[in-house]
Amino acid sequence: MAEVTRAAQPPAAKQTKPLDFDAFLSYTRRDRPVVSGIQQGLHHIGRRLGQLRALRVFRDDTDLTASPDLWGRITEALDRSRFLIVTLSPPAAASLWVNKEVSYWLERRGREQLMLVLTAGHLHWDQATARFDPQASDAAPPVLTERGSLPSEPLFIDVTDDAPWDYHAPTFRDKITALAAPIHGKPKDQLASDDLREQRRFRRLRTAAITGLIALTVVAVVAAGIAVAQRQEAIRRLHDATVARLDAEGASMLAGATPGGDERAVQELLAAHAIANRPDGVPILNAQIARFATQKILDASSSVHQLAYSPDGSRVATADDDGTVRQWDAATGKPMGSPLKGHADNVTAVEYAPDGQTIASTSFDGTMRLWNAGTGAALNPNPMRVGGLTAVAVSPDGRMVVTGGNDDTLRIWDPHSGQLRLAHQVFTDNRVAISDVAFDRTGNLVAVSGNSGTVIIYDTTTGTSHAPTITVPGLGPFPSTVWRVAFSPDGHTIALGSDDLELWNADTGTLIRAIRVGTARVTTVNALAFSPDGHRIATGRNDGALQLWDADSGAQIGPTLTGHTGMVTGVAFSPDGEQIATASQDATLRLWNATLGQPMRGPDPVLLHVAFSPDGHRLAASGDNAVQLWDIVSGQPQPSLTASGSGPKSFGFVDGGRIVIAAADGTVQVWDASTGQPVGQPVHIGIAQQIAQRGVHFAFRGDGREIASGTEYDGAAQLWDVATGRALGQPMTVAASDNAIYALAFSPDGHHLAAGYDDGVRLWNTDTGQPEGTVMADPRSLPIMGVAFSRDGTVVAAGREDGAVELRDTGTGRPIRNSPLVGHTSHAFGVAFGVGDQLASGGSDATLRLWDTSTGKPTAAPLTVSDSVTSVAVSPHGRLAAAASVDGTVRVSPAVADPSQLCAKLSTNMSHQQWRDWVSPSIGYITVCPGLAVAPD
Length: 937
Prior knowledge:
Layout: E1 21-26, H1 32-44, E2 57-58, H2 60-63, H3 70-79, E3 81-88, H4 90-93, H5 96-109, E4 114-118, E5 125-126, E6 131-132, E7 156-158, H6 170-184, H7 188-215, H8 217-254, H9 261-275, H10 281-290, E8 294-299, E9 304-309, E10 315-320, E11 324-329, E12 340-341, E13 347-352, E14 358-363, E15 368-372, E16 389-394, E17 401-405, E18 409-413, E19 420-425, E20 434-439, E21 445-450, E22 454-459, E23 464-471, E24 484-487, E25 493-497, E26 501-505, E27 511-515, E28 525-530, E29 536-541, E30 546-550, E31 568-573, E32 579-584, E33 588-593, E34 600-601, E35 609-612, E36 618-622, E37 626-631, E38 637-642, E39 649-654, E40 658-663, E41 667-672, E42 677-684, H11 689-694, E43 696-700, E44 706-711, E45 717-721, E46 727-732, E47 741-746, E48 752-757, E49 761-765, E50 770-776, E51 784-789, E52 795-800, E53 805-809, E54 830-833, E55 838-842, E56 847-852, E57 857-858, E58 863-864, E59 869-874, E60 880-885, E61 889-894, H12 899-903, H13 912-919
Parallel strand pairs: 1-2, 1-3, 3-4, 4-7
Antiparallel strand pairs: 5-6, 8-33, 9-10, 10-11, 11-12, 13-14, 14-15, 16-17, 17-18, 18-19, 20-21, 21-22, 22-23, 24-25, 25-26, 26-27, 28-29, 29-30, 31-32, 32-33, 34-61, 35-36, 36-37, 37-38, 39-40, 40-41, 41-42, 43-44, 44-45, 45-46, 47-48, 48-49, 49-50, 51-52, 52-53, 54-55, 55-56, 56-57, 56-58, 59-60, ...
């Protein structure tokens, strides 16, 4: 075969950087198998004995490290390479990166160091225009189809028929030799001869080595043991280095600092955990916390334009870029049935009929199609074809389907036959494209948005526009585009998605508020939806972010949720409001927890206490007036317990499924946690008004028979009978009358009481009312803001005013190993033990922190919440932690590293090829999520 290029000429531009690479491989991901074969061939052909590789070849998968400046790293590698090898194929011709790399090379280095390899498709040289003919060459990137792009017809290697591109195969090796010869600066025949000579030399040395090994069998047996140990050490070092890299890459991808997306990040973190000799749970738990709200990441195979929930919430339908409609199980994320095929172009919108039996879809092909949601059968197999359709909505009573299109026409269709009933030009300018349509709750009014910045309310009963008309101001002479429009469930508010999220009064047409959804001016709202109760709005941005908003105040609820790597094109709440589904141009469908993963609003403006029920099924929090309970599985609130008495309310879950609530004025009431009803009448304990005003703290014995109070007024602790309100024994006091109590906690067996004072922690024997030991304090005698016993009662934790958490042996009073835990920057108000050595703490620095008391180290990065943390709790099984804040919200977080929780968010394991590319070709494949299928290569 002829050599692929002539002798190299001087470069077009002066080369100032060292040429560290012999060649740079430019390719698209779909050509990865052939590129891998080319790289291996270039590494081996011509390699001399003792050399690691014959040529150093740059390939981004093997040589490019994570960096926020991806193009900068690529251009640096190009500048440091002697030759550019470009794989040509239809996917490569469509790749922006391949075109950029070739353009950069031609501009900076000239044409003679450019080498071409055809992997698929066709090439045809147009001699008259000195370029590859763009009409006949489907494998050439655009830059090589420009006139005069190359001075003469280039020679290239054709490897289209050489799969699987193994460099050991004679034909493929011969072609790679032709490719390598100019880089080595040798004729092909000489390089082939040199390579053959080196192979023979290797075989001779191998034969000699075998002979020597036979002679040294005894020595080899001894050496084998050493070799095994060294190999094991090498494997351990390889594993450790790989784990460190994967953990760092995964964390960076989750934070959005490097490309790759959170699906790959989770896959890499799980792989690191599986490979590690001593698995570190911190990266796993950090990922669980960062993606707590993410329930499922589903591969949709193509970009998704819109989505909709079925009326019963069991399914999600998606409008896909490949011209199909798909249905997904909303609980498991699994596809339901086969894709619905019929549209000849992108499906732009989809909606269920109110009975859930029919799906309506629209497409750029100009058709509105109806489908049987159960069987997938087309209900109007020969639909009328109009202009490109962009939006669809079904009336609440199911009597009509409306669509909007690029021709400014609102159309009304029969929901059973698909026949057109009415076509109406909504805007005065027929060049306006309708972007969205939405019914109000009555089904009589339809809001229509478009790229003119105007929203028209159309009355379906009269066939005319209905006042008011809403106009969103544009930027200078340019009108705004209203991408999405939605009526609130009560029909009195219209939400618009444009540059901002805007809420308008649907009755008067006046602006209620405009909400900036991002800091950048280029951020737009491309998807939005009201929650079923109308109190929340979900918005999807063009940068892939999802946000939740309080529809009443306009305040953002919780942090911005990230994960999508492309524009969010659709968002919807499930009918029960517990789940959110999003669609994106990144070809994924995502399911989110709309409640438990977000801050949960408590009953009062300030929350002071939080606790899990003993069975782990409920979470409760209290402030000044009531105790609010939530279902811990769904995150849905349960009826609040409006307690008697005045002042802040404290509470405790006790035996028998009961809650004891104590008010600062001494009112104590027992409630049934399951029914939300009081048990008996409230009782009053003897707390004077002046004492209550200074601050009273309570602790609740697990059997529900006793409570303890401690005051900031005089530092006295007192036990009380819950049934009668009578004092039990004498007050437990200390010598200093001004030594206030800030926190109390019963031991698990109820026989000891820990009290946090101005000068430290004291333990009291609740049977005798006498102190046990002396005050437990650091040398500075700092005030103690929170106390808690370990679940076995052997350790007491104390949160100090300076933010440190002391850990002391309850038997000796001495600090245990690794005490104190240092992390909070100010008052540690809340401490709570979990299972074993697990501890949670919260402070006025607005963080929830998770610790391993056996090591003294955090088990996760601090979780930043919206305001100062007043109380923390860990669930009975230790899997969840909760923090109550002074802004009246409760935040729930994963508390223990559990890879299965991350696996539950994925739909497949990584493929074997992804393992080789992302993890290591030197480490055997591990199925990190046993219950999931392995993705195909």
